[in-house]
Specification:
Layout: E1 8-11, H1 20-34, H2 43-62, H3 68-82, H4 89-106, H5 114-123, E2 127-132, H6 136-145, E3 154-157, H7 158-161, H8 168-178, E4 185-189, H9 192-201, E5 205-209, E6 222-224, H10 230-238
Parallel strand pairs: 1-2, 1-4, 2-3, 4-5, 5-6
Amino acid sequence: MNSRVTQAVLFDLDDTLFDHAHATRAALAALHLSEPALGRWAPPELERRHAEILEVLHVEVLAGRLPIDRAREERFRRLLVAADFGGEASLRSLDLARAYRVGYEGAWRAVPGALPLLAALKQEGLAVAVVTNNLTVEQSAKMARCGITPFVDALITSEEVGATKPDARIFETALRRVGARSHEAVMVGDAWVADVTGARAAGIRAIWFNRHGGARRDPDVAEVASLEPVDALLELLRGNDGR
């Protein structure tokens, strides 16, 4: 007998289905070569500094306090200032923001295993939703370009809901959109607080996508390091993992 109770699978997008880390690394690698000020840091250090600034500014964008284009420019202005740029950082930052965006979009791809997994979920008749802290236009574009859209029944963004993960409202909206109750759903995401803590607080079983080898935080939460192989992950999503 099939003991599956899962009716809907909720996914984070960035660094869960969409390979944000890959696209970011590719775009920064190009800037590392073309901009001497950024070349003062080794690539891992540049990536770390960029991620820290991005995280801060992303909160401002989601709160509606900073337009996205202005945030992108400000990100590189801050990097140039930190690198002791010898010219006017505010002038150069716009060019870098534009170049980064070209490189970032040019490297868009799905996380390995994401598309076969989504196809398998749809074949089984499970509802699929993407629950993401970002702007709707941006996330829709990523999904379309990477071939994710055809497998997704609902895209729920923080912009649309007016609340960001881990707020329960965004998860509740996702459940309504796919017609599932909390105990019938499972959430998969890479961000522990936003995805795992948020989902569990909303009564949804969570699976941590620990792709980059972070320290395990709770033995009661299942974790996976990859979306492959599909069969093994399907068993976990169905709830047949013995938990």
